[in-house]
Amino acid sequence: MADRECQACGSGPILVHNVPHLGVFAELCTACLLRHKPGTFCPVCFDIHDDTTAHSRVMCLRCPAIAHLTCLPSARSSCYLCPQCSDPSFSFIDSGAADGSAALVFTKDLCAAKIAAAAMHRAAALARAEAEQKVMGALVARRNAKEAIERVAALMSNQNHSDVDDG
Fold this sequence. Notes:
Blueprint: E1 2-4, E2 14-21, E3 24-29, H1 30-36, E4 57-59, E5 66-68, H2 83-86, H3 101-166
Helix pairs in contact: 1-3
């Protein structure tokens, strides 16, 4: 994370998170990162989802956003629309908010940082697996090359012995 320009919305200089995005690594602001990863966190409390509480969540009717049932009034759980879908002017970063906004901004930044860390961890694991696969491929190619050289050497040795026998 650093203070730079967001590669998705162009705002900056602001806090950005380096994440895999659309097949490349990009620096996204907290708002863009949260907007592009709606199913990874609760849009009400900004807690990251884990697999242990999957049964106590509800998905937005229009997008992949998933909220904790405990974060919603019980009447809204059957026809849930996330804040982004229910309000066309919604923004994950509300610069006009006054009371308690610093804590909320920190919570959103922390949520985005956790999402970015998990994404980079997955990218690193994938890169490690690809590197290990390439190492194994190189070892097989090296073994095959060594065997081919040994076969050529044996053929050349047999050729030399037959030339001597013929001479």
